[in-house]
Amino acid sequence: MDPILIFIQALNGLQLGIMLFLMAAGLTLVFGVMNLINLAHGSLYMMGAYLAATLQQQTGSFLLAVLLAIPLTILIGMLIEVIVLRSLYDRDHLDQVLATFALILFFNELVRIVWGPQAYFMAAPALLSGSMQILPGVSYPVFRIGIIAVGMAVAIFLYVLIAYTRLGMLIRAGATNREMVGALGVNIRLLYTLVFGLGAALAGLAGMMAGPILSVEVGMGESIIILTFVVIVIGGIGSIRGAFIASIAVGVADTFGRVLLPPALASMVIYVLMAAVLYWRPQGLFPAHG
Amino acid sequence: MNRRFAGLVFALGLVAGSYAYGAEQVKIGYMATMSGPTASLGTDILDGLKLGISHCGGKLGGLPVDLVIGDDQLKPDVGVEVASRMIEKDKVDLVTGIVFSNVMMAVAKPVTDAGIFLISGNAGPSPLAGKGCLPNFFAVSWQNDQTHEAMGKYLQDQGVKSLYLMAPNYQAGKDGLAGVKRYFRGEIVGEVYTKINQPDYAAELAQLRAAKPEALFVFYPGGMGINFIKQYAQAGLKEEIPLYTTAFTLDQSVLQAMGDAALGLLNASFWSPDLKNPVNEKFVIDFKATYNRLPSLFAAQGYDVALLINSAIEAVEGDLSDKDKLREAFKRADFHSVRGLFRFNNNHFPIQDFYIREVFRNEEGVLTNKTIAVAFKDHADAYHTQCEMK
Q: Using CA atoms, how far apart are residues B129 and B291, in angstroms rounded to an integer?
């Protein structure tokens, strides 16, 4: 492989990683702060994509659709949290898996009833469509560069949020020791709802960014949720920094695995990576809990 | 006479009476993937089947139809379970549908061994066309390799010298690429198998660009196709490396989700909505009126299943009890299908024409296919000589 190709593939790996990061950040927050395994995170990704695709068809503007769809997704997330998940915090992880799996089935059917079983069309915005020359003789799709840009912006936003705001402090405290935070008089219920809303926003945003390049269809969350869990396990539960590093690592490993190895081995690469990390550091790379 | 004895005789009389020659109805078990991302294929074939039944006057061969619907969830074990339930509990006379070849391979022997006819509305795996051919099995659609062979032949005839191949890493993917290579004699510059339901092809597209082939052939059905075509167009590859594929990637049910990315792409198919024959014209117009969308090739297959069953039951005058006569009637396939005249080969797979279609926007602005060339006339599958049936 010549250096240009290696560079392109590295960029592809970065872009895949950034997309995974958008999903993983929300999931790791929810798992870390609320100790809740949320399989329906993929459903929020799907709802975000469908809502944005529909709004884009209605308004004709990708930006407007995204700006409107994010609060809608947050709303759906908070509704799920209040109606379904509140009763699950004290329960075993397996109960949470069962309940959130039921949510996956529910959302899949809901989408099929409202939007139909056929895949939905979502266009990339005119500003971000086509390819651009990033190096002499090398063109790369503009939208993917857009994804990298959005992902980096979100990463910086989360960093500032977690490190420099009160909410961020509560999130870090909650991820480290939630009982103590409750005992110190913080409104844990409100915190949980806010964190879940933030997770839903991130998942929805990931869906909206993925919509133009992937197919918007029933069950689209399922293919990405497994990868997301691998990422947060590698990165360490509850750590945004871990999610970022791990998602880039998984994205690059998966991309180069597909390019360099035969197909059967290529699909194993990320799981082998996860096993290796867990062997060396069972808590993940940057665990939030002490 | 003892009242209980009379009652028993009466009951027996009723039961005996129901075995009169000429059944009262035909019970059909329709099993397909009706849930999950590929559910639209199962519902499409069913919609075609139902339209076919209604075009035959709401009956098949003069018998009222009792349709039992089951979902195999794309799982072979669930498929076997559903099929067994249909045969033992619902007592169906035939089983039809079956979208996916892995489910078909699981249910083919159990269903046909029970003496029930299995009419495939889609899946056409090569073992059932060759050494494993079964007398009670009939494929109305095609044999899996045929459509890919058609594109391979077209590329060979067009003088393409180097070809890059891509497909998902499962049996149908491998069969598809094998079919292309059977007729394409040029250089195969790359043969890449990707993970099933892989969402992102950026890495593979970069490799494709670096290989600089003259053309690209892909087999990516359903959601995989939508992802691939969109990403291929976005990477600016449409101008560099022309893409050729089969109808499964560019079929009506997924075209709208691809948008302009699909415009101008060529695909091989045994059927097209613009085929000029009276049966097809009626089918397309009525399908659009009934379901408010253009039919896909899956719907066309379902429609032909209804017409085939209708012709067979008519030929035996409604007597479903003589299986040998019914089998002969199926083999004769005396009906006009949406693709013109229809006939079976010795292995109960169709001998049919294959066309090359191009994606375009019709007057209503809807993306659909138009026929631009004929790839094969009266094409038989590659496995029929291995089948022992005559």
A: 33
Cβ–Cβ below 8 Å for B257 and A130: no
On chain B, the residues whose CB falls within 8 A of the CB of A228 are none
Dihedral sign for Cα atoms in the order A195, A201, A205, A206: positive
E-assigned strand segments in chain B: 26-32, 59-60, 63-71, 94-97, 117-120, 137-139, 162-168, 187-194, 215-218, 243-246, 266-269, 336-337, 340-341, 343-344, 350-361, 367-379
User: What is the pLDDT confidence band of residue B337, given thresholds at 50, 70 and 90?
Assistant: very high
Domains B18-142+276-344 and B145-269+354-379 alike in fold: yes
- Whether residue A289 lies within 8 A of chain B, CB to CB, comes out as no
* Architecture of the CATH domain B145-269+354-379: 3-Layer(aba) Sandwich (3.40)
Query: Where are chain B's structural domains?
Result: 18-142+276-344, 145-269+354-379
User: Is B212 part of the contact surface with chain A (CB cutoff 8 Å)?
Assistant: no
List all residues 6 or more positions away from A239 whose beta carbon is below 8 Å from its beta carbon. A28, A32, A175, A284, A285, A286, A287, A288
Lowest pLDDT segment from A152-161, A229-238, B31-40: B31-40
Mean pLDDT of A67-78: 95
Residue type, A83: I
Topology classification of domain B18-142+276-344: Rossmann fold (3.40.50)
pLDDT tens digits along B190-207: 999 998 878 889 899 999
The angle at the Cα of B87, spanning B85 to B93, to the nearest 5 degrees, equals 145
Between B155 and A35, where is the model more confident? B155
Contacts with B210 from chain A: Cβ below 8 Å: 1-2, 5
Decide if B223 and A13 are in contact by the 8 Å CB cutoff: no
Considering only CB atoms, which chain A residues are within 8 Å of B254? 118-119, 215
Helix axes A41-59, A62-83, angle to 10 degrees: 140
Which of A:33-92 have CB within 8 Å of B?
none
Query: How many degrees, rounded to 5, is the angle at CA B339 between CA B337 and CA B345?
Result: 80
How far from chain centre, in Å, is Cα A14? 15
Residues of chain A found within 8 Å of residue B226, distances taken between Cβ atoms: 119, 214-215, 217
CA dist list (Å): A108 to A40, A97, A225: 10, 16, 14
- Asked if the C-beta of B366 comes within 8 angstroms of chain A's C-beta atoms, the answer is no
**What is the SS3 assignment for A23?**
helix
Euclidean distance between CA atoms A19 and B192, whole angstroms = 24
Identify from B165, B234, B256 which residue to disrupt to test chain A contact, counting A C-beta atoms within 10 A and taking the largest count: B234
Cα–Cα distance measured from residue B352 to residue B342, given in angstroms and rounded to the nearest whole number: 7
**Dihedrals φ, ψ of B245, to 5°?**
-155, -165
**Is B234's CB within 8 Å of A143's CB?**
yes
The owner of tokens 């469509």 is: A129
Q: Is the pLDDT of residue B15 over 60?
A: no
Q: How confident is the model at residue B18 (pLDDT cuts 50, 70, 90)?
A: very low
- CB contact at 8 A, B81 and B45: no
Contact check, Cβ <8 Å, B259/A130: no
